[in-house]
Amino acid sequence: MRIAKVIVDVPANSINQTFDYLIPEKFLDILKVGMRVTVPFGPRKIMGFVVGKAEESTFKSLREIEQVLDVTPVLTEELLHLGEWVAKDTVSLYITALQAMLPQVLKAQYKKELLRNTDASLSQELEHLFAGRDVIAYEEFEGASVSYYQLQKAVQDGDLVVKYLVHSKITKKYVTMVQPAREGYLLEEALQDLSKNAMKQRELLGYFIENPQPIEKKLLLKKFQTTSSTIRTLIDKSLIETTQVEVYRDPHQQQFHKTTALPLTEEQEQAITPIKQNIANDEHDVFLVHGVTGSGKTELYLQAIQDVIMKGQEAIVLVPEIALTPQMVNRFKGRFGSKVAVMHSALSAGEKYDEWRRIHQKEVQVVVGARSAIFAPFENLGIIIIDEEHEATYKQEDQPRYHARDVAIQRGKTHHCPVVLGSATPTLESFARAQKGVYKLATLRKRTNDKEMPPVEIVDMRAELHAGNRSMFSRTLMDKMENCLSKGEQIVLLLNRRGYSTFVMCRDCGHVKECPHCDIALTYHKNFNHLKCHYCSYEEPMPTNCPECNSDLIRYFGTGTQRVEEALTKLLPEAGIIRMDVDTTRRKGSHETLLRKFANKEASILLGTQMIAKGLDFENVTLVGVLTADSMLHLPDFRSSEKTFQLLTQVSGRAGRHELTGEVIVQTYTPDHYSIELASEYDFEGFYKKEMATRKTFQYPPFFFLALITVSHTNKVTAVQTTNHIVQQLLQHVSNNTVVLGPSPSPVPRIKDRYRYQCMIKYKNEPQLRDMISSITEQFKEATQKGDLLITVDMQPHHLM
Ligand SMILES: Nc1ncnc2c1ncn2[C@@H]1O[C@H](COP(=O)(O)OP(=O)(O)OP(=O)(O)O)[C@@H](O)[C@H]1O
Ligand SMILES: [Zn+2]
Ligand SMILES: [Zn+2]
């Protein structure tokens, strides 16, 4: 077929269509659907994906494909279709959806090199091209008169390897291996003939006569204290040969203990049976496993995956980014060993690419990863698992704004395989679907070791104030901490910081320092004595006097982890504190290091933000303290109660998981709030009922779907007018029971000097909504292309901030 249908990489444009290009003769055999190409587009050359081929085109005078970037397709047919679906569902561009599926390295055009992979002769033209070198730039090949066929053939035969370079470092890694080129007796003959002076050569030959298997060149040189020239000489005599072998950078090289399946509890057995049936019968259902922390959900996933592997199929396991700790990864590696690839954002681009390629090359059967691992290029999926399904990180907050759960279900349908959602605190959406029978519900009420959940005590911080305690620790918490330390046990302290950072205020006039470019208070950073904007990175030194009234009583407020740490160090100087927040975990590997220290009991207190609430399992932790349970409750976000309930439940689950019994202290200024009360009783179903009633009253999910359109512009009037225009048009087309709200300022009304207004749509059934929104935004195409106007559409806003 002579015509390629190409999706081009021009995201600024609102182009969502394919373009026809002519396939030049030399690419006719090699070009496949799912490969990346470069094509001329206007005056430029750009990257594109081949999404189809055809015999004919309705267009005349087509331009030609310029280059083929891949030797094998990077996207399967299934992923191409899935991309189309994601684009439609999230009202975004097809190209953006396709790029979301690939590792960073493959998203851009990159430099290539050709690597010689054999010491045997290549074709004359290729030998000429390499001219004695092992590596040449790909451009040299393009500039030479060597045919593409020769390259293809050499690559297919394994004589040449195409190597991708992004920033020089992010590439495949190779090692040179040395091995005998002749059979043992021939080597022995050669050894006889060698001059007695050729000591090193003799030693090497002697070694290979004894050890015919390949050895890494570096090791060999070290072993015999010799240089490459010795090896070269023996290669020239055709006695030994070298090959380049690819090594994967394994970011999880630590030891893992091999584990085997545990006999399941009755509850686990009941939960897993229908999942196993799904697997056995190639059926698709969505299962919601609602199980308290420590009830053995992970063991259940492992055993379901075991079935999938036995069937020769593949598994995707999604876990929240911050739960991708070595503890979690080791459980999968411990059970399935090298069959597991791990994908999370702490990996370097090169490491991510390596893991992706292990999946692509079918070298693994299981991938454990964060959100984007849902696009793993497996072709024979047997199960998809989403652990902690309630986590907000499964929703991408950038184009394409997809939810991994929706993508999982879409893939599950295509592959006829089960999708398993697991959580101790499912989202209201999922639980409601399970109640209606859309999802199959399995409940695990007991911890596997039959331990009760630790008792939770709520402390009213207002009463503390009245009693004259102005510190951030209640008397109860102090007592319990001292007691705990005296017994040599450990403590986890959670500072729920979201929406409650350290801002600077004048005590005399009440002036709060705000970012000059955004309508938001600046945050105080103690290390540099600086104020910083979390939205635009604007910085300024901490003022010594109030810019409004010149008073010197300007101070920072709020409870940052640093302040808690300082206060704790004063109160409990002997304790030893490990602080975990964005500042202390920025460096790669620091997360692991801190946790290891705590596990080794190098400190008694682990103090941190949300990131410590998940999945951690330390046997010596007997006390969990939550410093301010309600800091999140008052955010303008319809999920704030739900998030509070989830967080409290998760963090409570960290105490007393083993022999020692644990307890939990929750400090709050709103002790009567239902999400705090019910979380302290571990009453999920009670919370569900109460919260559902609220959602119904205020017309929020799961009773209504939401869509959020945000308009931003440097000119406030334009922003308002555009939003208003969108609102008016929608009102003309939507059905009667759909609510269209706006224009109203966004919760942060100005970011980076751009004014932000929004339109919110609440609907129950609006099949045409996506098309409506597309055609409305299309009207502003010109204004958005000029770059001044920005319209973003979120078909499933997770939080409204
Ligand atoms: N059938 C079983 N018999 C004995 N021990 C089990 C069984 N299933 C799981 N366990 C053990 O119980 C502990 C808790 O199990 P697991 O971590 O799977 O629970 P979970 O529900 O995933 O917990 P969390 O929600 O806190 O992550 C683990 O130490 C696990 O090895
Ligand atoms: Zn002042
Ligand atoms: Zn700012």
UniProtKB/TrEMBL annotation:
<feature type="binding site">
    <location>
        <position position="549"/>
    </location>
    <ligand>
        <name>Zn(2+) 1</name>
    </ligand>
</feature>
<dbReference type="InterPro" id="IPR005259">
    <property type="entry name" value="PriA"/>
</dbReference>
<comment type="subunit">
    <text>Component of the replication restart primosome.</text>
</comment>
<dbReference type="InterPro" id="IPR027417">
    <property type="entry name" value="P-loop_NTPase"/>
</dbReference>
<keyword id="KW-0238">DNA-binding</keyword>
<feature type="binding site">
    <location>
        <position position="509"/>
    </location>
    <ligand>
        <name>Zn(2+) 1</name>
    </ligand>
</feature>
<feature type="binding site">
    <location>
        <position position="533"/>
    </location>
    <ligand>
        <name>Zn(2+) 2</name>
    </ligand>
</feature>
<feature type="binding site">
    <location>
        <position position="546"/>
    </location>
    <ligand>
        <name>Zn(2+) 1</name>
    </ligand>
</feature>
<protein>
    <recommendedName>
        <fullName>Replication restart protein PriA</fullName>
        <ecNumber>5.6.2.4</ecNumber>
    </recommendedName>
</protein>
<keyword id="KW-0347">Helicase</keyword>
<dbReference type="Pfam" id="PF18319">
    <property type="entry name" value="Zn_ribbon_PriA"/>
</dbReference>
<dbReference type="Pfam" id="PF00271">
    <property type="entry name" value="Helicase_C"/>
</dbReference>
<keyword id="KW-0479">Metal-binding</keyword>
<dbReference type="Pfam" id="PF18074">
    <property type="entry name" value="PriA_C"/>
</dbReference>
<dbReference type="Pfam" id="PF00270">
    <property type="entry name" value="DEAD"/>
</dbReference>
<dbReference type="InterPro" id="IPR001650">
    <property type="entry name" value="Helicase_C-like"/>
</dbReference>
<feature type="domain" description="Helicase ATP-binding">
    <location>
        <begin position="278"/>
        <end position="444"/>
    </location>
</feature>
<feature type="binding site">
    <location>
        <position position="536"/>
    </location>
    <ligand>
        <name>Zn(2+) 2</name>
    </ligand>
</feature>
<comment type="function">
    <text>Initiates the restart of stalled replication forks, which reloads the replicative helicase on sites other than the origin of replication. Recognizes and binds to abandoned replication forks and remodels them to uncover a helicase loading site. Promotes assembly of the primosome at these replication forks.</text>
</comment>
<comment type="similarity">
    <text>Belongs to the helicase family. PriA subfamily.</text>
</comment>
<dbReference type="InterPro" id="IPR042115">
    <property type="entry name" value="PriA_3primeBD_sf"/>
</dbReference>
<dbReference type="InterPro" id="IPR014001">
    <property type="entry name" value="Helicase_ATP-bd"/>
</dbReference>
<dbReference type="InterPro" id="IPR041236">
    <property type="entry name" value="PriA_C"/>
</dbReference>
<keyword id="KW-0235">DNA replication</keyword>
<dbReference type="InterPro" id="IPR041222">
    <property type="entry name" value="PriA_3primeBD"/>
</dbReference>
<dbReference type="Pfam" id="PF17764">
    <property type="entry name" value="PriA_3primeBD"/>
</dbReference>
<keyword id="KW-0639">Primosome</keyword>
<feature type="domain" description="Helicase C-terminal">
    <location>
        <begin position="541"/>
        <end position="695"/>
    </location>
</feature>
<feature type="binding site">
    <location>
        <position position="518"/>
    </location>
    <ligand>
        <name>Zn(2+) 2</name>
    </ligand>
</feature>
<keyword id="KW-0547">Nucleotide-binding</keyword>
<keyword id="KW-0862">Zinc</keyword>
<dbReference type="GO" id="GO:0016787">
    <property type="term" value="F:hydrolase activity"/>
</dbReference>
<dbReference type="InterPro" id="IPR040498">
    <property type="entry name" value="PriA_CRR"/>
</dbReference>
<keyword id="KW-0413">Isomerase</keyword>
<keyword id="KW-0067">ATP-binding</keyword>
<feature type="binding site">
    <location>
        <position position="515"/>
    </location>
    <ligand>
        <name>Zn(2+) 2</name>
    </ligand>
</feature>
<dbReference type="InterPro" id="IPR011545">
    <property type="entry name" value="DEAD/DEAH_box_helicase_dom"/>
</dbReference>
<feature type="binding site">
    <location>
        <position position="506"/>
    </location>
    <ligand>
        <name>Zn(2+) 1</name>
    </ligand>
</feature>
<keyword id="KW-0378">Hydrolase</keyword>
